[in-house]
Amino acid sequence: MTSLHHLRAGIIGSGFIGPVHIEALRRLGVKINAICGSERAREVAARWDIPQVFTGHDFQSLVNCPEVDVVHITSPNRHHHVQSLAALRAGKHVVCEKPLAMTTTETAELVETARQAGKVFAVNYNVRFYPAVLQMRAMVQRGDLGEIIHVNGSYMQDWLLKETDYNWRVLASEGGELRAVGDIGTHWLDTVSFILGSPVTELLADLSTFHRTRQRPVGEVQTFSNEAVAHTEDCPVDTEDFASVLLGFDNGARGNLAVSQVAAGRKNCIRIEIYGAKQSVWWDSENPDLLHYGRRDDANAAVLRASAGFTDASGYTDYPAGHAEGFPDGFKMLYRSIYTAIATGTSDGLFADAVAGHEELRLCEAVMQSHRERRWINL
């Protein structure tokens, strides 16, 4: 049996999310032997003391590298399919950022290739590993909330609020037809289905674009960057800035989701409210250690992570109450789950696999169809 600490990682991509993967892996004691990307990969490698650097986006050399056991794919969305296939065919385990690919035809191919390869293939739905999310999931499974009536929630950001805010994700050719829903809404959808143990079976979607034209820098900028840009050009936008989605789940519950990347003041706010026949529970990612309970006849309550009444996630939290665990810690716990599955051959069943990634693309295609045809879509 291989130890988690003897596994070696390689990172494809050197933008915002690549170093997030690197930092989480380092905290787990996983050695990172290689990175590939643009010339910026050299800077990232120097900062994190990564010995092998492949520039010119030479992912094939990285996946063929004998000193890499697990490939992390953090490149722009349109590259995920071909890079995942290359890694699997090179005999590597894979951790791929979402969305898994651009179409369900591509994701279906990845599901089958991963099955045939017999390797661990994980999609980077990190929100599953917030302790509050795992606690909510345990409560639903145990019946603490009673029959689930409906779910309400949102995922709000403001990093694309201004006309001068630009990133490759605003272009359908780079990130896919859906942007706000595909980039962040899928996190909410995956997390809620994970908590409920129930998939979405029908939906009605409305998408809207506030900035039809944005100012594109002459040269790229990083995600969430505030760097000043001297020269820009007009860039037509063909993806949505915000969206509303009505949902029906397999267990009979109803739901509604609001998603926006033009919500002033919201930096990275996921809100999930689950209403059951006995009580409700809600959580906000910008205050991640608190879980709120709502009751009809008794006092409402707020419970702090790692304290009494918040114990079902104890295996996925490292710090005592009052020592906040948030965004970076979710990645750490996700990779602990994935790498333990690789090392031991036994999974805890909590991380998203290729099938889950395929199902999220089915949802995205249904969202786009619903918006275009102005009707409910059954999945």
Spell out the blueprint of helices and strands.
Elements: E1 8-12, H1 17-28, E2 31-36, H2 40-48, E3 52-54, H3 59-63, E4 70-73, H4 80-89, E5 93-96, H5 104-117, E6 121-123, H6 131-142, E7 148-156, H7 172-175, H8 180-196, E8 200-208, E9 213-217, E10 232-236, E11 242-249, E12 254-260, E13 269-276, E14 280-284, E15 290-294, E16 301-304, H9 327-344, E17 352-353, H10 354-373, E18 377-378
Parallel strand pairs: 1-2, 1-4, 2-3, 4-5, 5-6, 7-12
Antiparallel strand pairs: 6-17, 7-13, 8-11, 8-18, 9-10, 11-12, 13-14, 14-15, 15-16
Helix pairs in contact: 1-9, 4-5, 5-10, 6-8, 8-10
Describe this structure in words.
The protein has 379 residues and is of the alpha/beta class. It folds into two domains: 4-124, NAD(P)-binding Rossmann-like Domain (Rossmann fold, 3-Layer(aba) Sandwich), CATH 3.40.50.720; 131-325, Dihydrodipicolinate Reductase, domain 2 (2-Layer Sandwich), CATH 3.30.360. Helices cover 32% and strands 25% of the residues. It is built from ten helices and 18 strands. It has helices at residues 17-28, 40-48, 59-63, 80-89, 104-117, 131-142, 172-175, 180-196, 327-344, 354-373, and strands at 8-12, 31-36, 52-54, 70-73, 93-96, 121-123, 148-156, 200-208, 213-217, 232-236, 242-249, 254-260, 269-276, 280-284, 290-294, 301-304, 352-353, 377-378. Strands 16-15-14-13-7-12-11-8-18 form a nine-stranded mixed β-sheet. It is globular. It starts with 7 loop residues before the first strand and ends with a strand. The model has no long low-confidence stretch (mean pLDDT 95).
